[in-house]
Amino acid sequence: MHESTRPAPTTTATLLISCNDREGIDAAVTGFLAEHGGNIVHLDQHVDFEENVFFMRIEWELAGFGLPRDEIPAAFRAVAERFAMNWRLHFSDYTPRMAIFVSRLPHCVFDLLARVESGEWKVEVPLVIGNHPDPAGLVERFGVEFHHMPVSPENRAEQERRQLELLRSRKVDFIVLARYMQILGEEMVAAYPNRIINIHHSFLPAFPGARPYHSAYARGVKIIGATSHYVTVELDAGPIIAQDIMHVSHKDTVDDLIRKGRDLEKMVLARAVWSHLQNKILVYHNKTVVFD
Amino acid sequence: MHESTRPAPTTTATLLISCNDREGIDAAVTGFLAEHGGNIVHLDQHVDFEENVFFMRIEWELAGFGLPRDEIPAAFRAVAERFAMNWRLHFSDYTPRMAIFVSRLPHCVFDLLARVESGEWKVEVPLVIGNHPDPAGLVERFGVEFHHMPVSPENRAEQERRQLELLRSRKVDFIVLARYMQILGEEMVAAYPNRIINIHHSFLPAFPGARPYHSAYARGVKIIGATSHYVTVELDAGPIIAQDIMHVSHKDTVDDLIRKGRDLEKMVLARAVWSHLQNKILVYHNKTVVFD
Amino acid sequence: MHESTRPAPTTTATLLISCNDREGIDAAVTGFLAEHGGNIVHLDQHVDFEENVFFMRIEWELAGFGLPRDEIPAAFRAVAERFAMNWRLHFSDYTPRMAIFVSRLPHCVFDLLARVESGEWKVEVPLVIGNHPDPAGLVERFGVEFHHMPVSPENRAEQERRQLELLRSRKVDFIVLARYMQILGEEMVAAYPNRIINIHHSFLPAFPGARPYHSAYARGVKIIGATSHYVTVELDAGPIIAQDIMHVSHKDTVDDLIRKGRDLEKMVLARAVWSHLQNKILVYHNKTVVFD
Amino acid sequence: MHESTRPAPTTTATLLISCNDREGIDAAVTGFLAEHGGNIVHLDQHVDFEENVFFMRIEWELAGFGLPRDEIPAAFRAVAERFAMNWRLHFSDYTPRMAIFVSRLPHCVFDLLARVESGEWKVEVPLVIGNHPDPAGLVERFGVEFHHMPVSPENRAEQERRQLELLRSRKVDFIVLARYMQILGEEMVAAYPNRIINIHHSFLPAFPGARPYHSAYARGVKIIGATSHYVTVELDAGPIIAQDIMHVSHKDTVDDLIRKGRDLEKMVLARAVWSHLQNKILVYHNKTVVFD
What we know:
- Four copies of one chain form a homotetramer.
- A seven-stranded mixed beta sheet of chain A has the order 7-6-5-8-9-10-11.
- By secondary structure, chain A is an alpha/beta fold.
- The longest helix of chain A has 24 residues.
- In chain A, helix 3 runs parallel beside helix 8.
- The first copy, chain A, folds into two domains: 80 residues, ACT domain (Alpha-Beta Plaits, 2-Layer Sandwich), CATH 3.30.70; 193 residues, Rossmann fold (3-Layer(aba) Sandwich).
- Chain A has eight helices and 13 strands.
- Chains in contact: A-B, A-C, A-D, B-C, B-D, C-D.
- Chains A and C meet through strand 11 and strand 13 of A and strand 11 and strand 13 of C.
């Protein structure tokens, strides 16, 4: 479906690293790769000088690299321990598995599934879970299984347990809340730390909680926004991944805000999921480093 | 599917007017409505002082209006003739019929059909015409008929004649070219004047014609754009309806521009179609007045 | 200084109107102008259907108008009373008088004075009042008198009284707080209702009060904003006139946010002052209608 | 003037490097710094895979670095030669010297001088050269010398020779054309390669040359733009540093475009100068890498 005729990139490995900042980290990591003949294709690093934290994302070609992929972790451990690093290793030929949670509004789930189907994103969607039955037809039309799991105060704990089982049985790597209007329980959040992506329909921290477009209208703001963030136990307070806004005016009714906001929500959520899929996000102190 | 609980608006009539500017037009039009008890819900007007042209869009409730809808044209004619107006009359309970032309890239047609299906837009799509077979499955999944009509230099005239017949038989009001990579013939353009909406993947007048992302990359621009315009016989030179841009950087390859541009194309095209559906566009001198 | 060779526009009168919405207002107002041969150059109107309030801004040429300007109010009164209108009348050849309040940061006052001096805005600045002495030299360089009036909890009431006297003696029409870091007293606010324009360095309602860039940094937002609003007695809660944002990233320190924010503050404040100078703002229910 | 209380950063050295891409460059450069105890504060790199060119900007603290600053070039040469690097070395305690060229419009020169005076930028402005006398008073008010050097087809070569002498005598490092409406000669361009920054008032490559706002108006575009680029001998065709746009509508006259464009020009030019001052720009193949 692509307009490009560029050859597919070769398989790469990506290291995501954070640790206390001190001299020599760059040299140690790039030296490690050079030693094994690794050809670096991307290197991003960042230092938070207030907190003295170092962050790095380094991606190199596996072709020609002197270590087989399953020996990389053990070999890198010496470097990692020297700097007390937190680190993760990803391979570009792995296809991550994404679950989508949805309520009644279909625009975000539609947009996500269209990106998957058209090959824009390299991701599998083994299932969609909805607390309303409405999106079933739409989801199944994409050949994706839909689980209708209504949630009430009484059955919430039980439903979440069932959801967790489902997610595990489908080997889900991360979850996207596509305008899912339920608060997740602590167990669910703990099971997918920094791996549940929500879209909130305001420019947080303004207008958290329910009905932000109505609040925005009442306050008479001249912009509306959307915020994508990782879910934590505190509502709408997790680490922000992406935000954007649209200009509005006195002409816009609440319905106009809702209509315009839908496009904003789709775009901001898609941008956050894209960054997550590219393994470009590091989280610390309830904030994100998002390499671009 | 809407979040709103607002009651549906009542049926309205909308007049779109343009004429040479002179004193008293506003008073004549609003006086005409007042005389018949018309409650104005929107009034937009604009004067191009360089060209001395007056434009107005006026929308009023039919409930309580003193004239039955089929008598409005005759009654308004006196006002219109006094100022030598060009004018059109629309009723909000008419559902326009939109045909979509597509080539291989599915993102725009997907986005359009999703908006129609979710009820975001009040429009019927009786058919999609494609010069490639690829989008057939996607389109039919929305319950819309797909006509595969490949076009070559040899059969172009014949195919356009068949297309025009199809469009007429389906009572199509306007056409959207959703990344349709063929140039339309004069007969087609003449059959739908200011009623064929194209999306071009650059900020026109920069990078008209083929492969604008490649040209943008080669020039090293720091923004990419998309332009929606009415189709005229001159390629990419019709009246512009909507434009927007995204910031890019040296990090973006041609493939990145293509990927980012897809979202831009979807958004800008949707904005233009929305304005068209709202009867908010007036065309003159190869330019548009787009009321918001 | 202008690049344009367009002839200066003729003198115009502008009516700003708000009232309960009902049928016939447009016809009554445009009929009044037509009756006296008024050539309308701009007409904007808006209806808030939730609150049932009608707003209009109508501007017409005085040349050829059948009423001398001092007879317009009495003549219009009949129309106004029929619809219980709130209304104001402005003439385009009047040059409004703007006072500027400033603390230590010079970028906003610099930008405002540069616009006045270069002829971009038609406004007089009879004085600048500062609670710090720092901007004195800069202000006087523009030939504008600077009053250093330090404010402390003890002398606040007394200083405001002196400020009000100064403002009256200089016939000030409206006040711009150009990053003035003091809260105004009730008497001052009451003396200039909807005529004191503030710039707050966040996208309100997020981050009201002191040090919003520090709060934005701590929260890890991906956008920073600025908000221009009319001052009311409640801090940072007045009717919003203009807002805009800039994208930021993990790379931006608090100092970067402050640096980038300065440009945003200048632009948003200038946009709000421009709208005010054009008599394009109507206030109701702590919100604004800003015609463009 | 700053709101920040952060301690001033220590003096740093910055290397800007480009060369053909191959394995081991990162390791060689970071290894060189590690060897001498250099604490890296910023590292940005980029690879253009189409052209196989590697780019790096690396900044480290001089405090604690094992080499005195005048020995760095000789020591680094071994690394540089191994990879056939183009490279430059900057020290953060050097204050660059910027000349400004201006014609009649004052907004850009005003904005630049205000940023210098308020301490926002660390740069000296030894002189401003104008081909019109108008900005003299404004410039001298900032304590900067102004040279009125009118240019005509007859005296152009002679004036440029005098300008070059002036620039050399004032030890100017780079030149900013602040809406200077003259084309520079080849000798001038050759004397300051990639060190003359222009602001053009359109989104290039659209509307190069004279009167772009008039052309934009005539075409009926819905955005206007500004482009800052390094000057080459071909008019408006040099490497683009920064671009931005504003949305406009049918309501905007040419005068409105000019007025709105002024703010855009100021902002885009300032952003380009800032990147230049931070030594964040690398030029190749008539394009730029602009690290942020």
